[in-house]
User: What shape does this take?
Amino acid sequence: MPRSPSDKEKTAPVKRAPASVLKRIDPAALLDAAAFGLVAVDLDERVLALNERLATLIGVQAQDALGLPCVQVLRNRSGVQRCGAGETLESEENVSRTDDLITRDRRRIPVRISVSPLADESGLRIGYLKTVEDLSGPEATDHLLGSSYGFGAVIGRSLCMQRLFSMLPVVAQSDASVLITGETGTGKDLLAEAIHQASDRAKGPFVKINCGALPATLLESELFGHKKGAFTGAVEDRPGRFRMAHRGTLYLTEIGDLPLALQVKLLTFLDDKVVYPLGGTVGHAADVRVVAATHRDLGEMVRRGRFREDLFYRLNVLRLQVPSLREREGDIPLLLDYFLKRHSAELGRPIQGFAPRTLKILLGYDYPGNVRELKNIAEHCAHLCQEKRVQPVHLPAYLTEKPVVRQRPAPAAAEAAVTKGPGPGENGTAPEAWSHIEARLIREALVKARGHRGRAAQIVGCARSTLWRKIKHYGIEV
Amino acid sequence: MKVLIPLLDEAVAPRFDLATDVLLACLGDEGAVVERKLLIMPQASAERLCQLVIAEAVDTVVCGGIEAEHYDYLTWKRVRVIDNVIGAVDQVLAGLSNNSLEPGTILTEKAEGGC
Assistant: This one.
């Protein structure tokens, strides 16, 4: 029989935490413990505090944002529009709305933002607390794709990809470390993010770090953080990527480039789940799932003593091998069509597809740069094509002007391509090839326009002044 | 050097795609501002701004947040894009004049506070 509230009060007195306990709680730690992004602002809408979750989402260091106008830090649509209209935050009070923001790494992500007033002990309003929830889950990527052949942002209908996709839900639901291997440009990064988005950690941060991009000392500080004064230039405490990825996923790309000294530290973390910042003696627990990727043969590196065997086995709990584009029979037309549609829609061009002759060239190519190279070729075509169908002339010159290399690159060559930066196969547009094709397009446009520069500029898709500059640059006679 | 800066009041707009006010400025060889023109766009559109950048043969765009596709397009068109900048337009022009402006520069004075 339900009891009346008065009975309840008599039998089960509510235990209240003493005020002294509440006063001992560090407000920054309280914010960091939240499962959502949080930002506290004063009445002038300047940032008073920003938790690590939000700092990671938008790509700033929390310390750097303090004191700045919130709209400049958060860059959310409704905030910018409200400021433009001269309205105050009071109009947003206790409202939860879907919105979007642009991160420091130039991604636009959907979010839900709620605003609550903040008052001091006497009840006087002193500011606002904004809650920011990241909505860029798997549903969002599926919607963007408009394709049923895929997992997250990875698409493909070949047998080997379908086999990979069938494993992914199981891999996502597990909390074990994952090792993703595959040639450069096969989509390891997308796969790692798709696993995160399909996992129970999807609401948590997805933090990525390239182990090959930084020198060892800097990488250690980036990964594990440092204490103020740990080394010259360490003017403040930094949490490091492991702590930033708390309750989320840390994606270590190019794990094969991780220096041996750091391999030991990573192994210790995987065993203890505790992070020791540089110059600090106190460890911090971090609940992080590690996903690592490499284009190198880690087994071979272990045999040569360049990668720790124990770490290899620790990471290799779940192994996903992403097939190269050559192995993905039937996926090339699907991907070409998908990327061309996407880029032509972005540019507002009504391109319907590839002409049969163009498709023949594209299907006969070997794609040493895999999906990344294919994507860049499709983008190149979308930019250059002014017709309904992409013709061979719109393809990057290296596909049509010299014999197509059909041999798979040697592993050493592939490594060199990664370490020395993208070549023509990576970005699709070598400077020489591009200038050559541009000059040819300008000549053709001038012929079509019978020498009329304004009309030629329209055909090429640039301003008259730009065309003039380019005519001069290429020494084209008009 | 011809510069385009999307504005929100007197500051660099937080977002390239939502800006309706745009400053076009020409900096002379000495770095001094020789021409200044304020444009009001009929509506906010990143594509329209990109078209404007190309049509006006702008060399440098200074902005806050910009999406990768617009950034890539402009850089592909050989336009220098200095993004993630926070600051008043006059500070930005001064930074361009003395060549000290780079992506991520924060020129706005921070208010006291923080917990």
Summary: The CA atoms of residues 57 and 205 of chain A lie 7 Å apart.
